[in-house]
Automatic annotation (TrEMBL):
Native species: Intrasporangium oryzae NRRL B-24470
Lineage, top ranks: Bacteria, Bacillati, Actinomycetota, Actinomycetes, Micrococcales
Bilayer-spanning residue ranges: 12-33, 68-87, 94-111, 131-152, 159-178, 184-202
Entry keywords, A to Z: Membrane, Transmembrane, Transmembrane helix
Annotated ranges, domain Phosphatidic acid phosphatase type 2/haloperoxidase: 125-197
UniProt keyword annotation of DNA-binding present: no
Pfam family, one: PAP2
Name listed for the protein in its UniProt record: Phosphatidic acid phosphatase type 2/haloperoxidase domain-containing protein
Length: 224
């Protein structure tokens, strides 16, 4: 397997802007999917596609995986690798891996149970709010933490495996009536935004203004 090609490291401002864009997208999904009739209708339509496409046995297995076993396996694994990263002085990844689930879990729990109100617009669905998915956010944040403290150089199959786990976790939270697709989408955007902003804040590199090529060439030319 070929390792992932090394790409230029994004700057701290670029990470922060991308993270804020994810958080704005999270708010858009919240407003449209939860509080508007077209959004609720589209959410119900996608929910019906999942229920009518997958057989009940598979949907139940996905639910068990997403809402139990994924967290049971990922939580101790991510914690162990984070501690190992700390001992190896990889503090940036370790702090993100340990802090992200701790921050995301209470935020999503509060939003689901108290912070977000789902109005009844005659579209169907639950009478109570289910946005965002706490279980999906937990799995997503643990997977991000796992990426941050991965002990060896990442290869393509590593990323494909973790992306597959994330997809199954998202689908599993919808497959057995626990959540609507918008709930999982919101959780993904919230975790992505928090992770990118956190990674930018933890970046040890000092921010340096961009120097043009012409200015760099001038600096190299000796005076006289």
């Amino acid at each position: 397997m070929r390792p992932v090609e090394r790409l230029p490291r994004p700057s701290r401002p670029a990470l922060a802007v991308l993270g804020l864009a994810c958080l704005v997208a999270f708010l858009v999904v919240l407003v449209v999917a939860v509080r508007t009739r077209p959004g609720q209708r589209l959410d119900e339509l996608l929910f019906g596609v999942v229920l009518n496409t997958l057989p009940p046995g598979l949907r139940l297995a996905l639910d068990e995986f997403a809402r139990r076993w994924a967290i049971v396996v990922l939580a101790p694994l991510t914690a162990a690798l984070a501690v190992t990263a700390l001992l190896r002085r990889r503090r940036r990844g370790a702090v993100l891996a340990l802090a992200l689930p701790v921050v995301v879990a209470p935020v999503t729990l509060w939003m689901r149970d108290a912070g977000v109100v789902r109005p009844s617009l005659g579209v169907g669905g639950y009478a109570h709010n289910t946005f965002p998915s706490v279980h999906a956010a937990a799995v997503f944040s643990l997977l991000v933490g796992l990426l941050a403290v991965w002990p060896v150089r990442l290869e393509r199959w590593h990323i494909a495996l973790l992306a597959g786990v994330a997809a199954l976790a998202g689908l599993g939270n919808v497959a057995w009536y626990a959540h609507r697709p918008a709930d999982v989408t919101g959780s993904f955007l919230l975790v992505a935004g928090a992770a990118l902003c956190g990674w930018a804040l933890l970046d040890p590199r000092p921010h340096r203004p961009t120097v043009s090529r012409r200015d760099r060439e001038r600096q190299r030319v000796p005076d006289g």
